[in-house]
């Protein structure tokens, strides 16, 4: 059952998938429609999940479900992965590659490959204060409070020591 994302409780479980490219405006509208259709039908053991999804910044697919109503199961997680793999094929993108790190700089989202982090830090391109999209956030309440935060306050802090 589709629930508007802002109506998910703070403890709702979320998953964030980052595209390796920004989608066009047309693609973003299509993808948002597909996300809403998927979560409307998303279920666990035959029970509808109270779920939502959104495309943020034309790059991040966020799926969420209220675990207090119906907890997701292995099969429901598998179906979401299948859905995301279809998006990857349809839009020629990668949503499961965790080696591309997203930073906010001058109002834009810049991607730095994990292997390039030491050089980006050494050159000053990325600092401990550079806003980083922490896609490890796992609850809806954390999306607003903890998704974008200074890189030095995330698992990337090791690069600034």
Automatic annotation (TrEMBL):
- Report the protein name in the record: ABC transporter ATPase
The root-end lineage is: Bacteria, Pseudomonadati, Bacteroidota, Cytophagia, Cytophagales
């Amino acid at each position: 059952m589709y629930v508007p994302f802002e109506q998910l409780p703070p403890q709702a479980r979320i998953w964030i998938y980052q595209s390796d490219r920004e989608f066009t405006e047309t693609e973003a509208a299509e993808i948002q429609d597909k996300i809403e259709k998927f979560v409307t039908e998303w279920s666990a053991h035959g029970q509808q999940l109270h779920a939502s999804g959104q495309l943020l910044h034309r790059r991040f697919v966020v799926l969420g479900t209220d675990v207090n109503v119906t907890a997701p199961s292995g099969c429901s997680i598998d179906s979401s992965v299948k859905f995301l793999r279809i998006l990857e094929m349809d839009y020629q993108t990668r949503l499961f590659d965790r080696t591309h790190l997203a930073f906010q700089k001058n109002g834009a989202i810049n991607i730095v490959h994990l292997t390039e982090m030491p050089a980006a830090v050494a050159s000053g391109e990325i600092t401990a204060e550079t806003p980083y999209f922490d896609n490890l956030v796992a609850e809806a309440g954390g999306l607003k409070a903890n998704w974008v935060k200074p890189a030095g306050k995330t698992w990337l802090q090791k690069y600034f020591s």
